[in-house]
């Protein structure tokens, strides 16, 4: 069976480094955790009866906490896979 055109052997220099993989995992985790924090923090703030500035502050804290913790988790997981 012939190989389709456009498929070439990958050179070793094209692979991402371990630091790049860790950084990408950290960024993906921070984005996913931040999006989850927006949803959960906003919902929690509305349930507590917060409006305006208080709601934004509470949601921001939740976004930072969930984004940071999930980002670190994903970064460590990518580091273990290197």
Structure description:
Induces production of reactive oxygen species (ROS) which are necessary for cell proliferation. May play a role in inducing oxidative DNA damage and replicative senescence. May play a role in the coordination of mitochondrial morphology and cell proliferation. The relative contact order is 0.19. The protein starts with 17 loop residues before the first helix and ends with a helix. Helices cover 73% and strands 0% of the residues. The longest helix is centred in the middle third of the chain and has 31 residues, at 18-48. It is mostly helical and 82 residues long.
Based on the model shown, name its key terms.
0% strand; 82 residues; Romo1/Mgr2; elongated; transmembrane helix; mainly alpha
Quick description:
Belongs to the MGR2 family. Helices cover 73% and strands 0% of the residues. The protein is mainly α.
Figure out the total of helices.
Answer: 2
Structural class: mainly alpha
- Kindly state the percentage of residues in helix: over 70%
Q: Give the topology string: H per helix, E per strand.
A: HH
Beta-strand percent range = under 5%
Radius of gyration: 20 Å
Q: Compute the separation of the termini in Å.
A: 34 Å
- Unreliable stretches covering 5 or more consecutive residues: none
Organism: Caenorhabditis angaria
Subcellular location: Membrane
GO biological process, one term: protein insertion into mitochondrial inner membrane
Pfam families: Romo1
């Amino acid at each position: 069976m012939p190989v389709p055109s456009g498929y070439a052997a990958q050179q070793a220099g094209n692979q991402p480094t371990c630091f790049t993989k860790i950084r990408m995992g950290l960024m993906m985790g921070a984005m996913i955790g931040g999006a989850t924090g927006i949803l959960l923090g906003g919902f929690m703030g509305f349930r507590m009866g917060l409006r305006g500035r208080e709601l934004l502050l509470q949601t921001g804290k939740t976004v930072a906490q969930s984004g940071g913790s999930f980002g670190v988790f994903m970064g460590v997981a990518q580091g273990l896979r290197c």
